[in-house]
Specification:
29% helix, Nucleotidyltransferase, domain 5, two-stranded parallel sheet, 7 strands, five-stranded mixed beta sheet
Length: 157
Amino acid sequence: MGMTGGGSGGYQSEINVTPMVDIMLVLLIIFMLVTPNLQQGISVDLPKNMNAPEVDPAIIKETSAVISIPNDGEFYLGKNRYNIADITNDNDPQKKALGADIKKLMEKKPPEDQIVYVKSGTGVSYGQVVGIIDVIRQQDITQIGLVADKKKKGGAS
């Protein structure tokens, strides 16, 4: 300890940093484990747009309806994953399940707040996005937000 008596009966005046280093390492490990879980939603490589408007603050709320399409053939509503081989098939049970889940999310909101955001990756086919928009419109939702990433000024894409 730093307060132990020496041979001459005085106090030792050295600083013991070992407890501080132990605490810092524990905090570092905690932050390393918690940080990946802080990300909201699904990671999507969004298309870049220089003139994109400012981000709607409602998109990051837990109650907002965000459909993420990272790759062809898979998409998410929030963090719930859906697989659809053919989005144009009206008999597809996954398509009916997606529509029911969107409708359930929108029932709780007033009509002016009923908006569904679509985040599509750059490699996703146009038909997949149009199919998702069609499913949204079948639920009597007219407000659809397409999400793009804003380019940084002066940077090349």
